[in-house]
Structures are given as C-alpha cells and as structure tokens.
Design goal:
149 residues, flat, Alpha-Beta Plaits
C-alpha cells in the first residue's frame, strides 16, 4: 500500500515538473519550397567510408533529382570540430524541395538509370546504413521574425 502511494506521488510530481510541449511558432507560408535537414551519426571510425559511399551512391541520385527540378538545392555538411555542440551527428544533408513538383522520373527509375549494377548498388547502400548509429530527418518551417510584432 505504501509503495502504491509513493508511486502515485512520484507520477503526480512528474506531471508538475515536466514542462508542457509548446506549439510551433507561426510560420512563413507560401514560399514554394520546403527545407529538410537529414542528419546521420556514423559509427566511430567509419566516417570516411560513409562519406565515400554517400558520394558514390546517394549524392548522384539527389543531384539528378535537383537537375530534374525536384530540388532547388542539395548541400552536405560535417561539423567543423570533433565534438562540436551536442556531437550527436557527423554528417548532414540539406535539401530544399519545390512544393509544386508533379510527375517526372521516379526515384526507383533514377536508381536503375544511374546504377546498372543493381547488386553492387544494393550491397553498398546496405553497408552505408550498417555503419550508422542513427539517422533522422528534420523538415523545417521557416520563421520570419521580422514579420513578428
């Protein structure tokens, strides 16, 4: 009985101590593009291999989609210093996509065109993800603070 009371008090205290989630701030609408940051955390010692595989197998696909008009820009980043900031990512991609793109060549068809040796492509892409600790995508909403009054 005492344990149940203690657990109940603990849970009640969490409800008070944990801040409530905030709604996103007002966003700039109608820009015609969406920016997404793709973050990767590569296992220690495998950064060079990951970057090589990304440059060989995924960047050409993204650049082909940029050339076809799906993306306005494709940029890649690494932290300037080891352990910079939170150090929870080691490689990032910024994609700025057009919101109104219709049709065109599918990603699967582009992969077939760019990589006729599908067996090698598949093995290398599998390896690229095997050497990751984590991967996450962050779609962004631009916030125009100049418009805030």
């Amino acid at each position: 009985m005492l344990r149940a009371v203690l657990v109940s008090l603990f849970v009640s205290s969490l409800a008070v101590a944990v801040p409530h989630a905030q709604a996103p701030a007002a966003q700039t609408a109608g820009r015609g593009t969406t920016t997404t940051w793709y973050f990767y955390k590569v296992k220690w010692g495998f950064q060079d291999e990951f970057v090589r595989l990304f440059a060989k197998n995924h960047l050409p696909l993204l650049k082909a989609q940029e050339k076809a008009g799906h993306f306005v820009s494709v940029k890649t980043y690494v932290p300037r210093y080891h352990g910079d900031g939170r150090a929870d990512w080691t490689f990032a991609v910024e994609l700025v996509a057009k919101d109104d793109v219709q049709g065109g060549t599918s990603e699967a068809d582009l992969i077939k065109q760019l990589y006729p040796d599908q067996a090698t492509y598949g093995k290398e892409e599998q390896r690229r993800f095997e050497i990751l600790d984590a991967h996450w995508d962050v779609p962004l909403n631009q916030l125009d603070l100049g418009a805030q009054k």
